[in-house]
């Protein structure tokens, strides 16, 4: 039987960083579901599709093939066979992903891939609805969050280190907007699972959060 860890939370809470670290230290596979949605979003942007038009999105999905490869333990996202891992982290793609993820047709396209990974591997999977919808039977569920200001500051630092010009206020506004979209979408909204451990990382280091989650694992 596999052991699954589900980490949910809002944009910029550090889910990917923490999930990757925990997976590495436990020798689990890290599954970044947000990257899956971002890959579909990139495909929609390239096709000039409006995520607000569900019919257009559904018609375009058969031409958007998403797959995963692992290289040196790192998840790589492939869009129609092209490795787009370095192209899906822009704010434009993130905002499109948040809108597209609200559509049932998009979620259904990725659901089987996510569940199959969890059935066949010990995984740490992060996203918005992992513990509530994708892996409701996960042995450990974490709801990881942080204040909007903290999340915006982290994102600004990340972009600045990459040499990308950015505005703290714009990033913070985008985060608040995405929180609202994610929490109020009709399909699988962002929420804390009833049996999830609530973890606010605003005043915690990456090491502290990682150790806290590892202390809750019972393999």
From TrEMBL:
GO cellular component, one term: cytosol
MF term (GO), any: ATP binding
EC nos: 2.7.4.25
Domain of life: Bacteria
Annotated Pfam families: Cytidylate_kin (PF02224)
Places the protein is found: Cytoplasm
Domain Cytidylate kinase residues, every copy: 5-217
Keywords, comma-separated and alphabetical: ATP-binding, Cytoplasm, Kinase, Nucleotide-binding, Transferase
Sequence intervals crossing the membrane: none
Residues binding ATP, per UniProt: 9-17
InterPro entries: Cytidylate_kin, Cytidylate_kinase_dom, P-loop_NTPase
One BP term from GO: nucleobase-containing small molecule interconversion
Record field: catalytic activity: CMP + ATP = CDP + ADP; dCMP + ATP = dCDP + ADP
Enzymatic class: transferase
CDD domains linked: CMPK (cd02020)
Family the UniProt entry places it in: Belongs to the cytidylate kinase family. Type 1 subfamily.
Name of the protein in question: Cytidylate kinase
Gene: cmk
């Amino acid at each position: 039987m596999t052991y699954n860890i589900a980490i949910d939370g809002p944009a910029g809470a550090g889910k990917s960083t923490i999930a990757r670290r925990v997976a590495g230290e436990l020798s689990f596979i890290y599954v970044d579901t947000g990257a899956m949605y971002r890959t579909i979003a990139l495909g929609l942007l390239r096709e000039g599709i409006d995520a607000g038009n569900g019919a257009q999105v559904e018609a375009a999905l058969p031409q958007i093939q998403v797959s995963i490869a692992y290289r040196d333990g790192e998840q790589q996202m492939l869009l129609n066979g092209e490795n787009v891992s370095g192209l899906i982290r822009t704010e434009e793609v993130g905002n499109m992903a948040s809108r597209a993820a609200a559509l049932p047709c998009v979620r259904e396209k990725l659901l089987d891939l996510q569940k199959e990974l969890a059935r066949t591997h010990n995984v740490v999977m992060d996203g918005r609805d992992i513990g509530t919808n994708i892996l409701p039977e996960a042995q450990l569920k974490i709801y990881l969050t942080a204040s909007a200001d903290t999340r915006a500051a982290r994102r600004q630092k990340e972009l600045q280190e990459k040499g990308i010009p950015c505005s703290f206020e714009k990033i913070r506004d985008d985060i608040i907007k995405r929180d609202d979209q994610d929490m109020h979408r009709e399909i699988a909204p962002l929420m804390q699972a009833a049996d999830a451990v609530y973890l606010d990382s605003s005043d915690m280091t990456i090491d502290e959060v990682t150790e806290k989650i590892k202390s809750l694992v019972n393999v």
